[in-house]
């Protein structure tokens, strides 16, 4: 018998509940990320190459574990339950970073806990949005763009706050206390998100997977708990060994190809066009996230060494940046641009002219290329090896537009092309692909490694600009390839649409 829900809950209210907990979860994650590379260098004494690779490996694991978390949500303990479990585990991981110790082992353990928590949270939050708007392609694109804005509202708040907290507390209570209090703020963000969800959870009571509708299976829950503890220790071990990290990335690449091959071969004939389209777009996403990984690595270190921190408008100084806060420009631009894109998608959708996801991906690569070229342009007017803060503003502006067009629609692409029964698992597979590119991105960032003896900005500037110009050229190449594949992608999308119409 169908479950009766009284009173009915609107899609908007259900979406708002997921939107808000996602916002607070991202507050914690980006508040931690914005400081992590410089924390490893300044407090733990890591060289820039090691800090980049440790963070790249952590980011790879953080994005890869959702492949398992999506399956746990779909099949074992339920989408809603798994998402909330993830939020609790993430709060614990950030709380471990709150402990005033500069022992690298504690750092690796905390990152291991964060890896597991994100694996539980990320695919299931996205899958709930997909379930809320299932079958409505135009609204799915808009919903996921707004959902992506939630990510950036949370990150915008935390990437402004945590560097400031570090500096303020550091000045008054000591440098070590400043760093760890900033990480503690991330844990507090998760606690606020969980409290908010508790108040609004009724709006999601009818959304979820089959296990959500049944009492918790204690045997399954125990099995998940034991496996999670094992994953924490495995992740910490991988982070301590760069050789293990490289092997893990290689294995993940093989696994994702295996996942797609298995799903495509085991699918019904009518589903294959959609799955192949999802495969092609996922590989394009891998290339995009190599660019994206520069935000916490090469772009962050560039801001530390080669950017004038005084922000001036018409010659008047408005404020002074903290170097890590430049990463916040990504979030600010996305919050500003998201409503514009949603309006454009909806307006074009009403007249049947909404561009395909594949075309939006191509535009996104072009925007990213322009973003990286902006840094080279800014270097032309550098003073004593330092570029204007405005160079970062405009560079991040193009970069963020590209992110919205590619990453912002990556989840919508899964929702559109992948059958519902594979939704959680495919969300996870998508994040494995993102994880691979995070580690590859940290390797790319190391092409701009600055020797420790180089402290003069005039000497470090050409090292960074060389990398950014090369990334701009690669972005142009990706744009050309994406445009060249449009005819194939359009045929696959049409075949997928025809198959869905025939089933209706």
TrEMBL record:
NCBIfam families: yjdL_sub1_fam. Coiled coil: none annotated. PROSITE patterns: PTR2_2. One of its GO terms (biological process) is tripeptide transmembrane transport. This is MFS transporter. Keywords: Cell membrane, Membrane, Peptide transport, Protein transport, Transmembrane, Transmembrane helix, Transport. PANTHER family: PROTON-DEPENDENT OLIGOPEPTIDE FAMILY TRANSPORT PROTEIN (PTHR23517:SF15), RESISTANCE PROTEIN MDTM, PUTATIVE-RELATED-RELATED (PTHR23517). It comes from the Bacteria. The chain crosses the membrane at residues 53-72, 84-100, 106-125, 146-165, 177-200, 221-241, 247-266, 273-293, 326-345, 357-377, 397-418, 430-449, 461-486. It is a multi-pass membrane protein.
């Amino acid at each position: 018998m169908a479950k009766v829900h009284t009173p009915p809950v609107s899609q908007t209210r259900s979406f708002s509940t997921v939107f808000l907990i996602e916002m607070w979860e991202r507050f914690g994650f980006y508040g931690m990320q914005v400081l992590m590379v410089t924390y490893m260098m300044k407090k733990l004494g890591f060289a820039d190459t090691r800090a980049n690779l440790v963070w790249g490996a952590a980011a790879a694991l953080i994005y890869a574990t959702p492949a398992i978390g999506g399956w746990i949500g779909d099949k074992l303990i339920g989408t809603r339950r798994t998402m909330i479990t993830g939020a609790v585990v993430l709060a614990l991981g950030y709380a471990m970073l709150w402990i005033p110790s500069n022992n690298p082992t504690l750092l690796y353990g905390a990152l291991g806990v964060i890896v597991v928590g994100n694996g539980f949270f990320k695919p299931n939050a996205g899958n709930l949005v997909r379930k809320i708007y299932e079958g409505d392609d135009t609204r799915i694109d808009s919903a996921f763009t707004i959902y992506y804005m939630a990510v950036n509202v949370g990150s915008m708040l935390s990437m402004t706050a945590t560097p400031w907290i570090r500096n303020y507390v550091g000045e008054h209570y000591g440098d070590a206390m400043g760093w760890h209090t900033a990480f503690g703020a991330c844990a507090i963000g998760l606690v606020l998100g969980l409290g908010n969800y508790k108040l609004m959870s009724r709006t999601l009571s009818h959304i979820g997977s089959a296990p959500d509708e049944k009492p918790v299976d204690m045997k399954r829950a125990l099995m998940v708990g034991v496996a999670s503890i094992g994953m924490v220790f495995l992740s910490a071990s991988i982070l301590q060994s760069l050789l293990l990290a490289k092997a893990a990335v290689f294995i993940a690449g093989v696994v994702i190809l295996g996942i797609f091959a298995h799903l495509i071969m085991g699918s019904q004939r009518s589903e294959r066009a959609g799955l192949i389209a999802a495969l092609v777009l996922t590989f394009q996403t891998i290339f995009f996230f190599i660019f994206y990984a520069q935000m916490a690595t090469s772009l962050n270190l560039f801001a530390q060494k080669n950017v004038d921190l005084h922000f001036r408008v018409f010659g008047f100084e408005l404020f002074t940046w903290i170097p890590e806060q430049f990463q916040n420009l990504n979030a600010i631009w996305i919050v500003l641009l998201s409503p514009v894109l949603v309006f454009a998608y909806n307006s074009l959708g009403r007249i049947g002219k909404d561009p395909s996801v594949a075309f939006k991906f191509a535009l996104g690569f072009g925007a990213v290329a322009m973003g990286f070229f902006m840094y080279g342009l800014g270097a032309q007017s550098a003073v004593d090896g330092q570029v204007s803060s405005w160079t970062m503003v405009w560079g991040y502006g193009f970069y963020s537009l590209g992110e919205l067009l590619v990453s912002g629609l990556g989840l919508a692409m899964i929702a559109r092309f992948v059958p519902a029964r594979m939704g959680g698992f495919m969300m996870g597979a998508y994040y494995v692909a993102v994880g691979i590119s995070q580690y590859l991105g940290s390797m790319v960032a190391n092409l701009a490694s600055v020797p420790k003896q180089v402290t003069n900005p005039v000497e470090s500037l050409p090292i960074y600009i060389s990398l950014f110009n090369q990334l701009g050229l690669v972005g142009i190449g990706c744009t050309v390839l994406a445009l060249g594949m449009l005819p194939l992608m359009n045929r696959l999308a049409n075949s997928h649409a025809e198959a869905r119409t025939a089933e209706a």
